[in-house]
Design goal:
9 helices, alpha/beta
Length: about 375
């Protein structure tokens, strides 16, 4: 191999393994093809476990708001600037049911919802869109736009959406405080619109094993150390339902879903992928090697052992009298704390995959 070939090979390896950094902020995980595949795999696992991507009661609101056609209408692909994936939020008719997918990642959630509800307009937002498909490949009712969730939404996006969806911002929320993100979601929602925030519960993480002969070492110990290190910055997850109520969201619901053991290995494998991305982001070679060694040990032990984390979908409604006010200026809200902790039965959750829809309390 020539020196030029070696340099090119080194450049390509770095391009696909280094963490993404954008401007002043940095993203702790990757944005290469492996990270995109990991995000899409996590999306599938959430769908298998919950049985839905958009809460069934929010789906019902779409159904009552407009007739749902069985196939996408034949409309031309919208004109979009490929370099920025810009969207025109006013392109759809004003009566269209609109959903904002904040921190859309690969846009896989938006693409799935667009197939289930082709008359609904879904707009995806992310600080970086390189993991999304080209705009020409997106469904007719999905558009994406670059946006930093820590900046105010553009004026034309305020009070525009019937639903705002957020998922997995554990590594994005700053200073243990989700209020800036919630306030921006509130700005985007119509009065009476709904927020669905799907998050992991790091406080409820636990280890499952398939046999007593296995040693409880790398998979359990390393991830426990990670969780304990991060706990001081993740207290907001435990309090998210009360913070929502504080900010004039009403009828706040917090549900908890324990991991179905049939999915535990798949979750553990995606966690190894997260650890690999985190290893690439470490500041020193010694720290990177430490994480990589923990991954190798964990992989050796992971057959029959997994560290799993409960899912906690939050859902709430923007106060009908909100008028872009919060706190003391908004109508007093009531908080409902509903915990769904599925019990284990002979190694599996008592509820089968995809059968949760009739079990959720109405808004």
């Amino acid at each position: 191999m020539t020196e030029l070939s070696r340099m090119k090979s080194f450049s390509v390896r770095n391009e696909v393994t280094e963490p993404h950094r954008s401007g002043e902020s940095s993203y702790a995980l990757g944005r290469n093809y492996a990270a995109t595949t990991r995000l899409n795999s996590q999306h599938l696992l959430w769908k298998l476990e919950l049985g839905w991507s958009l809460h069934p009661l929010l789906q019902a609101r779409i159904s009552t708001a407009q007739p749902i056609v069985t196939a996408p209408p034949q409309v031309p692909v919208p004109t979009v600037t490929a370099s920025t994936h810009r969207l025109d939020p006013l392109a759809a008719p004003p009566e269209t049911f609109r959903i904002a997918d904040v921190a859309t990642g690969t846009a896989i959630w938006a693409v799935e919802i667009s197939q289930d509800f082709p008359s609904t307009q879904i707009d995806g937002f992310d600080i970086d869109l390189q993991q999304c498909p080209p705009p020409e490949w997106l469904p007719h009712n999905v558009k994406v736009r670059e946006w930093d969730i820590y900046t105010n939404p553009a004026p034309e996006l305020e009070s525009l959406y019937d639903v705002v969806h957020i998922r997995l911002l554990l590594l994005v929320v700053r200073d243990n405080d989700p209020r800036p993100i919630l306030k921006n979601a509130l700005r985007m929602l119509k009065p009476g619109g709904h927020l669905q925030w799907d998050e992991l519960d790091p406080w409820g993480a636990f280890t499952v094993t398939a046999g007593k002969q296995l040693k409880d070492e790398a998979v359990n110990d390393f991830q426990k150390r990670q969780e304990l290190t991060a706990m001081s910055t993740l207290e907001w997850v435990r309090d998210l339902h009360s913070i929502m109520a504080e900010l004039a969201f009403e009828d706040v619901r917090r549900d908890e879903v324990r991991c179905d053991l049939r999915l535990a290995k798949y979750y553990q494998d995606t966690q190894f992928m997260v650890m690999e991305e985190q290893a690439a982001a470490q500041a020193t070679e010694k720290e990177r090697d430490r994480v990589k060694e923990a991954i190798r040990e964990g992989v050796r032990e992971s057959h029959g052992r997994a560290r799993v984390t409960p899912k906690i979908p939050f859902r709430s409604k923007a106060a009908s009298m909100l008028a872009n006010k919060t706190g003391a200026d908004a109508r007093r809200v009531q908080t409902h704390y509903c915990q769904k902790r599925l019990s284990f039965d002979t190694g599996f959750c008592s509820s089968s995959l995809g059968s949760f829809s009739e079990k959720w309390d109405p808004l």
